[in-house]
Amino acid sequence: MNQIPIKEEIQTKDELTKKEEKNIVFNKKAIKLILLLLAFGIITGLILSAIFVDETNQRIDEMAEMYMPIPPYEDFNPEHLTISDIILPSLGVIIICISIYFLIGLILVYIKIFLKTSSKYIVGLLFFLSPLLIQSIISVNTLRSLFVSSAIPYMHIRESIGFGFGGLGGIIVMVSIFEIIGLSILLYLSTE
After folding, report:
1. DSSP string spanning 120-180?
2. E-only strand ranges, 17-74
């Protein structure tokens, strides 16, 4: 009689081991998905940043031609953007692109879950994620406009809309960083 409970215990431990192995597989799947979306976001962000820098340099050239010769009292520097001018805006675009890809990934995961379960809760999550995706796309366009902020002639305006501490660009990027953290946790838990 003592052997029967031992066999049941062994079977229970084997079942637990199989369940743990399944959890590990799902966790690996979630991590792979997050890393893939992260890579797509970085690549897309770098491509968009390069496009935005080119557009900004063209705008600076147009402004320089329009206002030549520049009066000595103006604080306008008609030079192209330098590496230090584009680091923070490019980082912001990359971060928001990562957020966009995480949102797309979550939407696709929830569509897959909805097709299996037809749950109203999942529909609610889809309606919640869709405006966040639209907001992130609008944020990329906002950062596109802020790339030219380093060429704005007046220092106080440049600081308030640029990427410095408290500037509009900096605030958008900070919000997006917290959004990425929350979305990555939600994506990880949703793929289990």
Report:
1. HHHHHHHHHHHHHHHHHHHHHHHHHHHGGGGG-S-HHHHHHHSSSTTSHHHHHHHHHHHHH
2. none
Q: List, for residues 33-89, the tens digit of each pLDDT value.
A: 999 999 999 999 999 999 988 888 888 787 777 766 665 555 556 677 777 777 888
Domain that holds residue 183: 3-190
And the tokens for 15? Answer: 């079942």
Angle, alpha carbons 142-171-100 (nearest 5°): 55
| Structure tokens belonging to residue 92 | 């912001």
Question: The whole model's pTM is what?
Answer: 0.76
Hey, is 70 helix, strand or coil?
coil
DSSP state of 119: -
Cα(100)–Cα(139) distance, integer angstroms: 10
Report how many domains make up the chain.
Answer: 1
CA distance 84 to 118: 50
Give tens-digit pLDDT for 98-129.
999 999 999 999 999 999 998 889 999 999 99
Q: Answer positive or negative: Cα dihedral of 165, 169, 175, 180.
A: negative
